[in-house]
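From the shared-data thread, chain only:
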Amino acid sequence: MSAHENPLQEDCLLEIGCEELPAREQLPIRDAAIEQMTRLLKEAGLSFGQITAYVTPRRLALWIQNLALHSQPRESIRRGPPLERARDAAGNITPAAEGFARSCGVAFTDLSTLDTEKGPVLAWREVEAARSSHSLLPDIASQTIAALPLRKRMHWGTRDDSFIRPVRWLLLRQGQQVLDWQAFGLQAGGQSFGHRVHHPEAIRIHQPADYAAALLDGHVMADFDARRAHISHKISAIAEDLRASPILPAALLDEITGLNEWPVILIGSFAEDYLRIPEEALITVMMQHQRYVPLRDGNGRLISQYLFAANIHSQDAQMVIHGNNRVLRARLADAAFFWDQDRQKSLAARLPELQNVLFQEGLGSIYDKTLRLQKVARSLSSRCNVKADDLERAAALCKSDLLSGVVGEFPELQGIMGGHYARHDGENTEVVAAIAQHYLPNGRDDDTPQSPAGQCLAIADKLDTLCGFFAIGKIPTGDRDPFALRRAALGVLRIILDAELDLPLDKAVTLTLEALGHGIVKDPTAIGTAVLDFFQDRMRVYFREESFRTDQINAVLSRQPHQVLDARKRLEALSRFLTEHQAAEALAALIKRVNNLLRKENVEVQHDPDPQLFEDPAEHRLWEHWQVMAGPVHTHLQNAQYASALDLLAGLRPTVDTFFDKVMVLAENPEIRQNRLALLTRLQDAFLRIADFTQLQGS
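Structure, as tokens:
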């Protein structure tokens, strides 16, 4: 034993070997395994050091460093009846006290007392003896596996236990000792297994710290992050040799990493004639269907070569390349056929056929949705600075590509292919852009539409879906959102904010409900309120994710619930003011005092104060200060320059402080009282045009 080793600690290694884990599940499983193991070890009273997780297509492993050989002794205290009820008036032990002692398995005389907030009580202190980690770990291992958040568990054979894929081997050892762990009908051993082809034999793991190196000798890169970096480096190097740049988003790189234990990067190719197909279709086929990496040349154009990872170091790499080329060629041939066929019929000619495609029961066909989109898009066009005729034309054609062969084969290309067909049909650039972009954003990480026509049509499409589903009672509940209405609402908010659109949500929702008609919308007021409340919830979530404080969000949305862009401007100004301005907290407290006072007095003053009724110089100074400031403040507020308005209003603090120090606002004379409240109302109005300061919680 080396000098730095602790004889009371040993490393532990847990591995579960299985059939191929889904690539997209591996990182969540890996991270959850660390979280669950950490929790269970702490609950067991076992101290430990760093936990390293490994995941590949065929295994999940945990290396726990410096795990204590024994748990910490833990004291538990059981509380009994109050001490005053332990004996009766004659000094005899009461049945309650005897029952408590019996439940603890001890005599009454063995009990102690414990002081509590309600007085002394009978108590039994028991120290749980330290337990060996060797005895605890098998159950901890089973609990860790059972607690993993697997999307779908499998059962195989006649066993009750389950996992995401059939389990083939188990490994559990601490230091030199293999522990007695049984699960899935298997007995844990001290060995793992290498690559399915290159090293199918067992690999003896002598020490937990040897795990990654031992598997590397068995042609398995066990560490996901290291494997990912290796793949990324190889792809970049090969692409550079080809004078090309790879299209390799993080999600694709993660998936390639999850598909390979021993990744070898190879170069494939396809006939250049297929480059006539829209590049989105080519990229979709390569990335989403084959997990290949497309390449662009120096001018940003796709080239007829691609990269892919093979989970084997073949002696005949050309045979592997030929097989992948053949698979890709079949997919591209389908795409080329559909592309050629689809262009023989215009989008406009397909429009009547949409009457036969159901959008949603209760909301009619896709054709019905198209008619509604035309109305809503035209109504919103002025808000988005788009020609109404262009937007209405785009709305009429935007769903026709659903009937095309390419979209039928590759549904993820809906809208995108519509843009290509519209360009082929001779539609103008605004119509083309709107059709191509109107599904955006599809997900949280997607870009929003870049063209004004695309932004407006996307908002109209999402609003029709939201309002329509709310009208027929298909409203998200809890975690259930089968129609992705939260995503639709978030998409509307993102478009408005990214494009800086002056679009009131209440007006947009009203226009959408009118387009849906009374046949669908039975109670426009109730449905409109429900949709707007839904938007409010999404706004709160979105602004919290932008790191705004919850109380600030509530303060702003209570005053500006429907103008999303204006609400963001107010939030930015309020957050900066409260963070950076020295007088902010004190001023906010003063305004809250003013608001609370006016609310308590139920004041609704519509007139300015009368200076003739001022009795104290502090009243005159505050009114004069406000008159000088009022014009510039209202100008800033009118122009949505909230930060500048707050900076000016901050200058009121000394004068307001003096006013409250010198003046009794609630004077006995009702005329004087009303005059002073009128003065405070003018101040309140300015602040309320930004936010409700009473909802701020302070720093």
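The first helix runs from residue 26 to 43.
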